[in-house]
Amino acid sequence: MKLNKLNTAFACLALFTLAVLVACDTGTSSSGGRSGVSVYLTDAPLDLAGVHAVNVTLSGVALYPSDAGTGDAGGVELESGPISLPGDLTLNLLDFQNGQVTFVGSQTVPAGSYNRLRLQVVSAELVRDDDNDPATPDLVETITVPSSKVDVPVPFELTAGQNLAITIDFNAQASVQVNTTNGKNSYLLRPVINVAGMKSS
């Protein structure tokens, strides 16, 4: 596929959504309460002819308190989901369209102030039919990940008895880029992730 056609194809990419559900323990005090964090993944509908998979591999997701600064230390890893198992978690974003979600992980955390999530992105790849012949194997092309650490600003406060649902959108259209200057890396993943909404109950 020529680069101008690839640009047109990636212009059709929509969003996939990570839904972070924060549920506080109603039986604890606000000063010492523990809260549960669960992460789910879904994808908005795509119209990308010939593409059978957009695979993204994660090795971890961590939640950071506000006083942890901007470095690596102080994060609370989500460990109860598939990413806690040996190896990494690979997700085909096309599997989670039309409201479909997948569980990524969860963890109990102290009540308090938090300001970001960090996704550890190991790799990404595009799987497509390059010759319109279903009898031939699909073409698998690597999407280069220049930086594996993706920080998502998500400022919120957790108090005992609170349920907070946070939805963040991973903008695939803005994140997957066609590299026209270097033939070695045809595609680049520069994640653009924004908070879509927060709902407290």
What kind of sheet is the major sheet?
Answer: 8 strands, mixed
Strand content: over 45%
Structural class: mainly beta
- Low-confidence segments: 1-16, 22-31
Helicity, as a percent range: under 10%
Report the total helices.
Answer: 2
Give the H and E element order.
HEEEEEEEEEEHEEE
Assembly state here? single chain
DSSP E strands, number: 13
Kindly state the mean pLDDT as a whole number? 74
In words, what does this structure look like?
This protein is mainly β. It is built from two helices and 13 strands. A hairpin with an 8-residue loop joins strand 11 (176-178) and strand 12. The longest helix is centred in the first third of the chain and has 8 residues, at 3-10. The radius of gyration is 18 Å and the shape is elongated. The N and C termini lie far apart (49 Å).
Name its key features:
8-stranded mixed sheet, 2 helices, 13 strands, 5-stranded antiparallel sheet, 201 residues, mainly beta
Task: Reconstruct the topology from this structure.
Elements lengths: L2 H8 L4 E10 L9 E10 L7 E15 L10 E2 L11 E4 L8 E10 L1 E17 L10 E6 L4 E10 L4 E9 H4 E3 L8 E3 L3 E8 L1
Short description:
The chain has 201 residues and is mostly beta strands. Helix content is 6%, strand content 53%.
